[in-house]
Write a structure and sequence with these properties.
319 residues; LysR family transcriptional regulator; single chain; elongated; Arc Repressor Mutant, subunit A; 11 strands; D-Maltodextrin-Binding Protein, domain 2; 2 domains
Length: 319
Amino acid sequence: MRFDLFDLQLFVAIAEAGNLTQASNKLHIVPSASSARIKQLEDSFGVRLFHRASTGLSLTPAGQAMLFHARRILLRANRMRDELSEFSRGLQGVVRIFSISIGATVYLPKALSSFLTKHAQVSVEIEEHISDDIIRAVREYRADIGIIGGKFAVDELQIFPYANERLVVLASVDHPICARPDISFEEALDLDFIGLNPHNTLNLFLIRQANQVGKTFRTRALVRGPYEASAMVVGNAGITIVEESVARQCALTMPLRAIPLSDPWALREMQICVRNLGELPPFARDLVAMLRADGTSLTPASAGAAAPSPISNAPSGID
């Protein structure tokens, strides 16, 4: 059984295009050579990978299994190439972290600062994604460590508790809803809203929740992030929804009040996920250990926020 990475690239390209000529053009190979390579693959495994018809090519059950494994092999090969290239810069490794926005902006920076000081020849790359995409990336080896929010079906992954965050409605102190102990998300959707940029993972999460109750936001403005949104909330242009830790930080300098969302999903349990802790490089395992140790004591205040006098009606617990 002999094949190379280009054979796998070609197979994946044909599977995705459903057309041998298009895939061949994409990879700059003549169709006849592509056909011969796929035939050799099929002979090597003793199975047919494609159904061939006048309308194009489609995967057989064996081909579908092959596609799953081929994608994983190519992803890991690309990862190997990227990591080895780092050695030319004097680095000993890279840790790739996919995180929801609150993890990347509030919780991770302090831990990563300590980690990078300890591991001077290791670099860290962070990307913000929604939890579903983070789980997929960890499964597919595109991320070493994931920070997700909420409970998910995470087969094949190892999960460790990290921190909790509560979602709150942030309003000006003279807004009518400030007299309430809490508010449901569905009720909040009836109010004018200052939204976050479309790529913010909290924004994407809230859009999904709104779709589930069959409503949309009454958006007055879209701004870059929660701090910009808070500045507009002060002037009663609308309300916004942020994590409690962010609300506490904003309330230090602005007359704001946080009203907890009463929905069960508003209590977001942040978790660390890895594919297999034992497969990670030693420095990546050390980072997971540092995050787990930090997670046992993290609160919105300890993540970087301060005392909550302007939002004292918010519960003491966090998500």
